[in-house]
Amino acid sequence: MEKIVDKVKIECTRGDITSQEDMTAIVNAANAELKTGGGVAGAIHKAAGPELARECEPMAPINPGEAVISGGYDLPNEYVIHCLGPVYGRDKPEDKLLAKCYQNSLNLAEKKGIDSIAFPAISTGAFGYPTEKAAKVAFETILELTKKLENTKIIRFVLWGQESFEIHKKVLQNQI
């Protein structure tokens, strides 16, 4: 499923974020220490290899909403943008912090001249953010930024589970 907004293609797909071979960058739903963890972070670190952890170590810790960029190493992507999403119910205001994840990630992509970026559903796993609320924040934030994007022309959401994919697809259809 895809929509075009201000010459930027916004896509939703179901799949594995570590196998997005046509994306210049992928986003890691990172932990504060930028270490291997579970979920998206674990999958990205496993696929990228140990060099990713070595590069990330001096960049940590990061705070909710912050993003940093590294190489992609053994991934098919040139870059990994690591962003710490808010823990729902703990990090306040969670909607503003989640929006910052998308803003800061896209700002880094623009600065690096990255033409395509793939996001997971940040904060919706272990951090407990309700998927529909998170998707609304994500798409509202991205829609505000599309007019300003000069380099980034493809934004893809890669959702692991069918339910998350269906929710994101519905929210995207309703917001554009």
If classified by CATH, what would the architecture be?
3-Layer(aba) Sandwich
Number of extended strands: 7
Percent of sequence in beta strands: 15-25%
Instruction: Calculate the mean pLDDT score and round it.
Output: 96
Describe the structure.
There is one protein chain. The protein has 176 residues and is of the alpha/beta class. The chain has one domain: Leucine Aminopeptidase, subunit E, domain 1. It has five helices and seven strands. It has a seven-stranded mixed beta sheet with strand order 1-2-7-6-3-5-4, with helices on both faces. α3 packs across α4 and α4 crosses α5. The mean pLDDT is 96.
Brief summary of the model shown:
This protein is of the alpha/beta class and 176 residues long. It is built from five helices and seven strands. The chain has one domain (2-175): 3-Layer(aba) Sandwich (Leucine Aminopeptidase, subunit E, domain 1).
Topology:
Layout: E1 2-5, E2 8-14, E3 25-29, H1 39-48, H2 50-56, E4 67-71, E5 79-83, H3 94-112, E6 116-119, H4 131-145, E7 154-159, H5 162-175
Parallel strand pairs: 2-7, 3-5, 3-6, 6-7
Antiparallel strand pairs: 1-2, 4-5
